[in-house]
Every structure is written in C-alpha cells, then in structure tokens.
Amino acid sequence: MMRKESVDKFTSRRPFQPFEIRLIDGERFRFTKVEQLLVSRNEVATLDRKGALLLISLGLIATIGPITRGHQRRSRRASGPR
C-alpha cells in the first residue's frame, strides 16, 4: 500500500514538478499542477475530465514518479483548474 507520506513528497516539492500515479491495473493519472489534487490519509481526490470527483485509494497506487515520456499506454489525465 502506498503511504500518504510518499504522495506528500511529490505534492510538496517547490517548485512543483509534474508527476504521475500508476494504479495496480496500469491506469495512470498525470498531475501537472498542485491544484489538481488533494491528499487525505487514505485517498487522493481529483476531478475527472467531466468535472466529477474521483477518489483514488492509496491502496490501489502501484507507483508514483515523475511523468515519463514515450510510454505506450495512453494516460488518463486528471483535470483541474487551468
């Protein structure tokens, strides 16, 4: 299970550096602005492309890291304030 502190390391970097979360099923979420997400003890909250609330359980996060270029699977991009 991903720990809240691991996610906080990425959200608290100054200047902010874009990162992506990859779930255990391979789905990816990109965050290019700190305003795109909120981190609670057990979940990451963000908005999907239609503006609906999306809750990502920390237990479903396989990896978190800088945005990689050239991956073959199409990423799902979290929306948010632009």
Straight-line N-to-C gap: 31 Å
The CATH architecture designation is Roll
Number of helices: 1
Which stretches of 5+ consecutive residues score pLDDT under 50? none
What's the total count of β strands?
7
Q: In order across it, which strands form the biggest sheet?
A: 6-1-2-7
- Helix content class: under 10%
Order of helices and strands: HEEEEEEE
Which outline best applies?
globular
Which range does the strand content fall in? Answer: 35-45%
Broad structural category: mainly beta
Question: What is CATH's topology name?
Answer: SH3 type barrels
State the oligomer: single chain
* Radius of gyration of CA atoms, rounded to a whole number: 12 Å
Please indicate the count of domains: 1
Described by strand count, sense and barrel closure, the largest sheet is: 4 strands, mixed
Round the mean pLDDT to the nearest integer and report it. 88
Highest CATH level, the class: Mainly Beta
Describe the model.
This protein has 82 residues and is mostly beta strands. It has a single domain, classed as SH3 type barrels (Roll). Helices cover 10% and strands 35% of the residues. The protein contains one helix and seven strands. The chain has a four-stranded mixed beta sheet, covered by helices on one side. The longest helix is centred in the N-terminal third of the chain and has 8 residues, at 4-11. It is globular. The relative contact order is 0.29. The model has no long low-confidence stretch (mean pLDDT 88).
Explain the layout of strands and helices:
Elements lengths: L3 H8 L7 E5 L4 E4 L6 E2 L3 E5 L5 E5 L3 E6 L9 E2 L5
